[in-house]
Amino acid sequence: MASPFEDEDAVAGGRLTIVIGDDAPQRLDKALAAAVPEEAALSRSRLMKMIDEGDVLRGGVAVTDPKTKVKAGDEYTLILAPAVDVATLPEDIPLSVIWEDGDLIVIDKPAGMVVHPAPGTPSGTLVNALLHHCGDTLSGIGGERRPGIVHRIDKDTTGLLVVAKSDRAHHGLAAQFEAHTVNRHYMAVVNGVPSAYDPRLRGLKGISFEAGGILKIATHLERHKTDRQRQAVVWHSGRHAVTRARVMEDLKGGAALMECWLETGRTHQIRVHMAYAGHGLIGDQTYGGKKKVSPKLFGADVAELGNSFPRQALHAASLGFEHPVTGEMLEFTSPLPADLVGLLDALRRGV
């Protein structure tokens, strides 16, 4: 079963691998509760039940005592039970369909739409919309008539997403995401302009520049120690994450249109990495950082527009993969949505 989470490398074959981070609670149950991705929707009580039922393994051996002492670097495997019917209902929600055949569908997702139902968002999601749109054309994923989510983009990120309609497509797409052979390019509007000549940027651990001025950011990422909604850059735990980016347009030296592409697919990866580099995304209330759109450079009205932009300025602009059934190479592109076009026009116009 492929992962329904944005970090599509975290889950494979119905198993979730957890590496205990630094400063984690010493008890197994508490350490797992602190470390599992929020997107996994594994409550403390669910984790306790999994421990009791032998579904938490270390070195292939079940650990059934929730009070077991853990230490940083310990690796645990959680056996995820097959999905059961959660009564997700079809909803007649308009979709922008870019491609569709009997095995898969490519969607251009709008801002504000959650991909997968979860506690707090049981309806209004892409899955609800797909259940209505696809109807009887879904041939079944894991024995259920449902769409197969193999990757995610954040609620307020727009752009391209591929979803499996058949079991064979589900497995084939999941294998490509696991092997990092899917091409995913994003467009982002960031504060400041990253430069290979910036000594601050060159001095940051994990930052390098490749030919053509391409910025490479290579770190580990894991959930923030104190804020479950955030991811954090770490070095001795977490999961390896690599982002590359280049400046497509310098906007008066105070902002930039960036093309970003992923080597790995971790939760919030581009947002976290650009913030770590000191060039957080405009509109990103979680990771945006202290940099703001400058009234001196852009004028008061444009600065207000940029600094109050209602979502992270991020768009999944292109998606390429091999059709998991026919073997055909497919490439899709999505133009910038109207709100990002308006933001860029205002930044170009400035004072």
| Estimated share of beta-strand residues | 25-35%
Low-confidence stretches: 1-13
Structural class: alpha+beta
Distance between the termini: 53 Å
The H/E string reads EEHHEEEEEHEEHEHEEEEEHHHEEH
Radius of gyration, taken over Cα atoms and rounded to an integer in Å: 21 Å
Rounded mean pLDDT is 89
Give the biggest beta sheet.
12 strands, mixed
Count every helix, treating DSSP H or I runs of 4 or more residues as helices: 9
Oligomerization category of the chains in this entry: single chain
Shape: globular
> Number of DSSP strands?
17
Helicity range: 10-25%
Quick overview of this protein structure:
With 351 residues, the protein is α+β, with helices and mostly antiparallel strands.
Account of the protein in words:
The protein is α+β, with helices and mostly antiparallel strands and 351 residues long. It has helices at 28-35, 44-52, 126-134, 167-178, 199-202, 269-276, 295-298, 300-307, 338-349, and strands at residues 11-12, 15-19, 56-58, 61-62, 75-79, 97-100, 104-109, 148-149, 158-164, 183-191, 207-210, 214-223, 231-234, 239-251, 255-262, 314-322, 329-333. Strands 6, 7, 8, 9, 10, 11, 12, 13, 14, 15, 16 and 17 form a 12-stranded mixed beta sheet that branches. A hairpin with a 6-residue loop joins β16 (314-322) and β17. Mean pLDDT is 89; it is low at 1-13.
